[in-house]
Model the fold of this input.
Amino acid sequence: MKPKPNSRTFTRLLAVLLAFTFVVAACGSDDADSGDATVDTDLTVAIVAPSASEDLAFTQSMVDSVKAMGITPQITDGTFIVDDAAAAIRGYAEDGINVVIAHGTQFGGSLAEIAPDFPDTTFIWGTATDTQGLDNVFAYYPEADQGGYVNGVVAAQLTQSGTIGVVGPVQAGDAVAYIDGFAAGAESQGATVNITYTDSFSDVALAAEAAQAHLTNGADVLTGTAQMVVGAVGVASENDIPWFGTQANQTPLDEGLVVASQVYHWEVVLKEMFALIEDGTKGGQTFALTLENDGLVIEFNDGYELDGDTTKLAEDTIAGIIDGSISTGG
Amino acid sequence: MSEFFTLSVLVATLASGIRLATPYLIAALGETIGQRSGVLNLGVDGVMLLSAFFAYWTVLETKNLWLGVAVGIVVGFVMGIIYGIITVFFHATQGISGIGIFLFGLGFSDLMFQKQVGTPRPIKQLPDVSIPLLADIPHVGEALFQHNLLIYVAFLLVPIVTFMLKRTTFGMNISAVGENPQAADSLGVSVAQTRFTAILIGNTMAGLAGAALTLELGIFQANLTSGLGFIAVALVYFGAWRPVGVMGGALLYGLVGATVVQLKALQVIPRSVSDIASMAPALLTIAALIVLAGRVKAPSALTRPFSRH
Amino acid sequence: MTTEAPLLQMRGITKRFPGVIANEDVDFDLHGGEVHTLLGENGAGKSTLMKILFGLYQPDEGEVLLRGKPIDITSPSEAIAARIGMVHQHFMLVPTLTVAENVALGIKSKRGMLTDLDSVSERIREISDSHGLAVDPSVEVWRLSVGERQRIEIVKALFRDAELLVLDEPTAVLTPQEVDDLFVILRRMTDEGRGLIFISHKLHEVMSLSDRITVLRNGRVTGQTVPSETSREQLAQMMVGRAVRLTPDKPDVKAGDVRLKVRGLTVRGDRGTKAVDNIDLDVYGGEILGVAGVSGNGQRELAEVIAGLREPEGTCTIELDGTSLVGADTRTRRDRGLSYVPEERMRDGAIGDFTVSENMILVDHGGERFSRSGLLNFGAIKDHCTELVQRYAVKTPGIDTPTSSLSGGNIQKVIMARELTAEPHLLIASQPTRGVDIGSAEYIHERLVEQRSRGTATLLISEDLDEVIGLSDRIAVMFDGRVVGIVDSADATREGIGLLMAGVLA
Done:
């Protein structure tokens, strides 16, 4: 009567299921690998990133930037487990890829171990404000508070109630910079900003309820950052509430209600890095995306009409941040 | 804090808690049926992800919400067949097979999403349906009777599942194979058939839960459930394998989550303790489990494969 | 009995498992109105034969005829439909369900998908009234005593109108009074013309209940007889294949001084209730003190607390040869001369994955005899263990065989060998022969008597009344954590002890 797990058969079944996944996955990556476009450089490039490459947020912004440079990178995405990312980074370096982009603050520890083993490879790591003293690592980060400030100023013009709701993920990295910049901008115009961190990058339902709670408390304009905000945008759509985006252009989520998005153009700093690499510098420098170097661009949605005064105010604010007359508090 | 105790905020929090609780409730009720029959399914989250994706994709392509719900249910049913074959007929270790199902669901739903959809594109959400008369009750109506149809279905499932477990021969067979499969077998009750059916029902409900989640949010993305299915499994323990208890657990989890979010929106919870506050639902559940530990008994044959030899 | 075809005929049944022939050319028949006992040691093939009858196994050869007609039974539901019922040794009950629900399981409800417990309860009451089986249909089974649970098993069979009922060791967990009650019920059933197959290894029960007895050994029928023409000794011989002494000769031994002295001992059980409640005991050198009682009345906790595996509650006295054992660790207790043969031999007595020799030196491996500066002296170990295997007649391929591959009786001999080599002053033997074949049991009994002769104080805890009465000098009966009586074994009767065990005279 003793139960006897038939583990071998089970293992086989599981293997079939997983193999099926990999086969489909392999078919998928064929599209990405085909075509070997190099415009400015012969350098081979790979990206390792924690979320989906088409997440309309953090990862997509990097993939789009590299593609905009006319480079077709190899991509390993969805590596939210750091060990998987580390394996992918080392794998690309071993394969002789010239430039490996480790697109995630959390990959820093792995990089400190891997980079010294491959002195001829350049690792580009962000978002990070220093290179950990490694001379074959370039670091990059967005001064997200700048675009946040602009979005905040514009948002304050749209609110009737004077209250704006913000849905953030975990208090870390560029999310905090964006949100603090946004709050500073909106408050400079006399609006009240209510900020909620849901403490999750992935809980879409909770982000939706956070947005809902802001509406209950009188907010009539919303913004948010990180990939779980798709839930909050849904709530904005349902209630006809204007939305401000960041990281990537979020207009596709609601073509009528997304007012503007702060978009990261990593290619601006990547180009500088690639130029240095071609000249023989493998790393050791840190680059920031700013409004001034066009690494940050506020992309307005043509589908959402702003009046002339507001547009003018936005332009003045951008100019003010660039010339240093406005401090974004970042 | 006083702002929280205004009626409109309380009503909104209650409604929010009920929305949050719904996917947990449906999935946990299904898991309750499976566990009562002696089968632990840790793959709930994976099944939810798969059915959520396919429901979402269906609605994206056809604009037909109810077809989406149907597809979610069918995907759950199919996953039930797979899990049933693995655990009932091959006597596989349930814990690890469930994790296998979860990983498959997590990976495959993301893969299909990236291949077929790419960037998250919004779909129609399930419309709210006001229940005549009841919805007009001041405040209460707004909190309880203005939700989408699947939320009502979720709460209706509580008495239905209770009745099924307590008053039908099938429910009696489920309890028997979950407590003492040898006894059931000796009386001519097919352990395999009973467990397989229980797994099918449980997975189908996980499928419904996944559809309810994606159609409530009107969006899909990788790992949409964010571990929701695992919480649902924990809520079965919390609810002591009884549908009403499971409902209590789901509501507690949802309402505490909603309250925290509401208090954050009111800026009552300072940013410095935001992360600790976010753990409140999980901490409360763990605390309740500790208090309940030893007072309730799991089905004796839970996780134990059955064979005659 | 009728001259018609027997109720059941099993002819030439052979059932093979990989490496084992469980049944070989077994013939067995049963008439309505009789009790036919199937007797044999563990592994003799009784269970296999009955599982074939109940559709759980298919025979490789042979045929089953029911009421004269060949029948092919492939599942329990087919057996039930053929009016074959089975009361399993381990009750086939769902504790969380009510009596009525347990009885109704597997039966098609008159209300379709809905349960039909009212009419089921009605039938249960009818059956219990007409057969003297008092049961309340609405109670959950977990609330019931062992005796009541057994009655439900019988009700289940009667509810399905079983004409042929198999009872697999039904008395294993019952008090003597409950056994008597059960036999009355069984007789009433044969009076109705039903046929009963009684499976047991308790010889006096077999002698008192059976109309016919068939004995199995190693899968084959070794004899068929009737009680009036046989004796317990003969039956045992048929089971074992050689003459067996059921109760060992006890030489006269003059009792020595008190070796174990227990006063005011209270112990909490696993569930936090008082498992042992204020017990006083003395065990003298050269004496075997038997502890009788229905399982779960504190015997296990008593043994464990003296062995040092459990903490006593409050202040109490536990002295061995005048020195207190309270607070001493198990090592100290062993050094003072305590040996322990535990009830759960594979959990507490031996390590299954260890070899025979490793288990034999498990306690002493750190001592001077088997190790030098922390290194094991394999030569000495080998000599010692080879000798023990011979002296204790352990049937094993070698001293390096994993212990778990031995039979229950031989594992027990390995443990006994280890414990008795220590030349104990006090020996605690818990259920020393449970699940052990008769041959090994006989051997183990002889060793216990030998210890008695050399002046050891022995605490023998056993649920086997024959064993307790046969071996002990005095018998302490435990009920509900208390010692409710101590009787001289010369004056002891099964009935008297049975009443004490049931708490009747407490």
Remarks:
- DSSP finds 17 helices and 22 strands in chain C.
- The first helix of chain C runs from residue 46 to 53.
